[in-house]
Amino acid sequence: MSDTLGTDAAVGRQSRVTAGARGAAKLPAPPRATARRRARVRLRLEIALLSAPAILMFLAFVIFPVALAAYYGFYRWHGYGAPTDWVGLGNYRLILTDPAFQQVLKHSFMIMGLSLVIQGPLAIGLALLLNQKIRGRSAIRVLIFVPYIISEVIVGTGWSLMAQSDGAINDLLRHIGLGALQADWLSDPKLAIWTLMAIISWKYIGFAVILMLAGLQSIPQELFEAAAIDGASYWQIQRRITLPLLGPTIRIWAFLSIIGSLQLFDLVYIIWGQYVSGTAGTSTMAIYMVAQGRNAGNYGYGSAIAVVMFLISLVVALVYQRFVLRRDLRGAVAEGAVR
User: Which uninterrupted H or E stretch holds 189?
Assistant: First the structure.
């Protein structure tokens, strides 16, 4: 009987070994899992190869210059030779305590606020008008957008000639019987900032209108038709449907306008120059940087000003993104996750 039990036990062990061997033969990784892994690796390599040139360009022309400017900002450096006159945070303390910088900082934020207040409503109104089926709509769109593609040098030169005391604007006022309205549009501190805002609005309103038109045309027409059937008036439709759905476009345009206003340089420099802009009340941070840095031969101080400008723009951008663009970014992330 013991022999029988031993034989049965041996047969059972061999059966388990055979079953284990069969199970092991079935364990190789499924082809689908291997294919998915290879696809993920291939996708990552493609992303790395396609994004590498852009990343290298960004590092070379954005991050590296900012880091180099921050390095030079710690020295009193005149632009040639290796910087050796270490001043630490002295340049930055001088910038923040300089009344001239505080003045141009106020001008920059004033230009930023006025650009939003003036160009925003005008762009929305023109976009609503040009979104209608009116005669000559395409020609009007082109005429509005043309100033945006004209070089700042041409715009600045043309407006500086027309706005002089003996320029075309005063001459036109005199010929139409409004000579009492003639003024020194460029040098009078009470008028110069409004002259600048008129030029900026004329130059950049076309870009805002094109963005608003793109946003309007992305709104489904069925919403307007349903609201009209329900008895909503034209202004109720614009208030309850158009403006809320146009919100993401408005917020993106406002962000671009804010950053552009903080970095404004070319129009002011061409029309007013670095000296007249200070007395006329149109000087900006970029004008201050060029005047106190390159033109004064103090490149270390100019580099420090550039870093301060970068930090101010960065803080404004991060705050705007955190409190204004947060809803749009959440929507984009949620939509991407669903897909």
Answer: helix 189-217
Handedness of CA 212, 214, 220, 226 (dihedral sign): positive
pLDDT of residue 23: 46
User: What's domain 90-338's architecture?
Assistant: Orthogonal Bundle (1.10)
Q: Which residues of 265-299 are buried (b: 16+ CB within 10 A; e: fewer)?
A: eebbbbbbeeeebbebbbbbbbbbbbbbbeeeebb
Contact 205, 130 (CB under 8 A): no
Q: Report whether 108 contacts 285 (CB < 8 A).
A: yes
Distance CA 8, CA 95 (A): 95
What tokens appear for 225 in the block? 């038709």
CA–CA gap between residue 293 and residue 235 (Å, rounded) = 52
Q: Give the residue extent of every domain in the chain.
A: 2-72, 90-338
pLDDT tens for each residue of 72-130? 999 998 888 888 889 989 999 999 999 999 999 999 999 999 999 999 999 999 999 99
Location of structure tokens 């009078």: 188
pLDDT, tens only, 254-268 = 999 999 999 999 999
Name the token pair of 171.
Answer: 């001459």
